[in-house]
Design a protein that fits this description.
The complex is a heterodimer.
Chain A: H1 2-31, H2 39-55, H3 60-82, H4 91-113, E1 126-129, E2 132-135, H5 136-158, H6 160-170, H7 172-177, H8 182-208, H9 216-229, H10 233-254, H11 257-274
Antiparallel strand pairs in A: 1-2
Chain B: E1 3-12, E2 15-25, E3 30-34, H1 41-49, E4 54-61, E5 64-65, H2 71-76, E6 79-82, H3 94-101, H4 108-116, H5 120-123, H6 135-148, E7 153-157, H7 165-180, E8 184-188, H8 192-198, E9 201-206, E10 209-215, H9 221-234
Parallel strand pairs in B: 3-8, 3-9, 6-7, 7-8
Antiparallel strand pairs in B: 1-2, 1-4, 4-5, 9-10
Helix pairs in contact in B: 3-6, 8-9
């Protein structure tokens, strides 16, 4: 019984981590059609923001929930204004540019802080389920990820900003003819996506440790989840994460984490083969 | 004058599309632009709207030179645009499409209800996806969306193209009532009956140039239509 509860909990944790690390891509790739290869490094910057600010005495929750997203959103604004805005509609060029940004960020952080794993103490303590110890922070991570996902959906579904973003991404010229400043929408959307990556990095930092190349661990799975999710980005990542994470967790539990990864990638290949337009591509009426 | 265009030029890359267009639209008038396909009619409207950059000349809107302005800045100066093909936001609902026209409104719901009085057909479609509407309904929606922003000059690109006759008549009636209410309209249209029944003056665009402008004066719509057909045939 306890084992079943632990597996269930780990499935939720896996879904939470995948959702959290994918939301930024859902915005930047799903809405803006930018393949941001610096996504993992945006997460890494969020993690470093948490490590650095907590080392200066800032409360860890403020560092995770406010400083990390804010710092990375500001960096996102700078990158969008100086690089990305010249490359809209040029997918290969944006891939190359963001790959360059990724290398630059890894190199800069390595030069500044060294190539070490920086540990952060996990707040909140832990509890036991039978023989298994579970940290309250893992529980918090699941809650944060679902709240963030719901918040993101609500922003796009119910707010004026969300409506403007969706319209601009659908028909930028028509949006401009209705008085919408496209440049401003692009920069704000990119900043939102970058901020979400910062939040993901910040939340994951106490569990995974902080090091310059940490983003690479997450970027492949995040891209897979977005691609499998399909055109309705937010619904897509929710469904894709809910399919991929359980397979990975159960595979890890039954055999090893390597088997879990293999199971996840096998399922991803099957899904992409069966649904080349993604899961939500079958429901063109879904817009979010 | 509501719109004064002087020596306007525009190009697609190195291929010129407009060669020094001069055009005046009086405040409160409906001015038509006709011409064969590929003569620059849509390019003219896109350039006036600011979606396409002009390469020379000037566009003065309500006394202000807007040549260097972006499209959104021109829209905020009460320039409205209903493009060819409607450009409805397909995945968004009809209500959301209309809300996008009301971005400058303090009470968008009130403005939408006001505009819907002119478009009763749209009232029962508010929760439908824009992309699910028929072509005619989409055209009405595009027009309604534009009017939500309270434009003083509307650029209208072939509003009856590919539209079923019953809605075409509805669109003409709406445009007539808007014109009677004093809205200034620059109408690109191939339908001679539409032009002759609505327009105070009609310019003929040929190879990126205005080659002739006909003023209604005291002509009846049928006389004006005959004259416009003769003009087109002579090309």
């Amino acid at each position: 019984m306890n084992t079943a509860i632990i597996i269930l909990f780990n499935i939720f944790l896996g879904i939470g981590v995948l959702v959290l690390t994918t939301m930024s891509l859902a915005v930047i790739y799903g809405f803006m059609r930018i393949i941001n290869l610096a996504h993992g490094e945006f997460m890494m910057l969020g993690a470093y923001s948490v490590w650095f600010s907590t080392s200066l005495g800032v409360n860890i929750w403020i560092a995770i929930l406010i400083i990390a997203p804010l710092v990375v959103a500001i960096i996102g604004v700078i990158i969008e204004r100086t690089i990305i805005r010249f490359l809209y509609g040029r997918i290969i060029d944006t891939m190359l540019a963001t790959w360059g940004v990724s290398l630059l960020l890894i190199g800069t952080v390595t030069a500044l802080f060294g190539n070490h794993v920086r540990g952060l103490s996990t707040p909140l303590g832990s509890f036991s389920i039978g023989d298994y110890g579970v940290s309250y922070y893992s529980l918090a991570l699941v809650v944060i990820s679902f709240v963030a996902l719901f918040g993101l959906w609500a922003v796009f579904r119910f707010t004026r900003f969300g409506l403007i973003v969706r319209a601009t991404m659908l028909r930028p010229e028509m949006a401009a003819a209705l008085g919408i400043n496209r440049d401003r929408v692009y920069v704000m959307t990119f900043a939102l996506g970058a901020g979400l990556a910062g939040l993901a990095g910040g939340v994951i930092a106490p569990l995974a440790g902080v090091f310059p190349s940490m983003g690479m661990v997450y970027i492949i799975k995040a891209f897979i989840a977005v691609l499998i999710g399909g055109p309705a980005a937010i619904t897509g990542i929710t469904i894709a994460s809910s399919l991929l994470a359980p397979v990975s967790v159960v595979g890890s539990f039954l055999a090893s984490s390597v088997v879990g990864e293999i199971a996840l990638l096998t399922l991803a290949i099957v899904l992409i083969r069966l649904l080349p337009m993604g899961i939500t591509g079958r429901w063109p009426r879904l817009s979010l | 004058m509501m719109l004064e265009i002087r020596n306007l030029t525009a190009a697609y890359g190195k291929v010129p599309a407009l060669f020094g267009v001069d055009l005046d639209v009086r405040k409160g008038a409906v001015h038509g632009v006709m011409g064969h396909n590929g003569m620059g009619k849509t390019t003219l409207l896109r350039t006036v709207m600011g979606i396409m950059r002009s390469s020379g000349g000037s566009i003065v809107l309500g006394g202000m030179n807007v040549s260097g302005m972006e499209a959104h800045q021109r829209a905020r100066r009460k320039l409205g645009y209903v493009p060819q093909g409607r450009e409805i936001f397909g995945p968004l609902s009809v209500r959301e499409n209309l809300e996008l026209g009301c971005l400058a409104e303090r009470n968008p719901e009130h403005r939408i209800n006001e505009v819907l009085e002119t478009f009763p057909r749209l009232k029962r479609l508010l929760d439908r996806r824009g992309g699910d509407l028929s072509g005619g309904e989409q055209q009405l929606l595009a027009l309604a969306r534009c009017l939500c922003a309270r434009p003083e000059l509307v650029l209208l690109d072939e509003p009856t193209e590919g539209i079923q006759p019953s809605i075409r008549d509805e669109i003409r009636d709406v445009l007539k009532s808007l014109a009677d209410a004093g809205l200034t309209i620059l109408l690109v249209e191939q339908n001679i009956d539409m032009l002759s029944s609505l327009c105070e003056s009609v310019s003929l665009l040929e190879r990126g140039r205005i080659v002739k402008t006909v003023h209604r004066q005291d002509r009846s719509p049928s006389v004006l239509a005959t004259e416009l057909i003769d003009l087109l045939s002579a090309l």
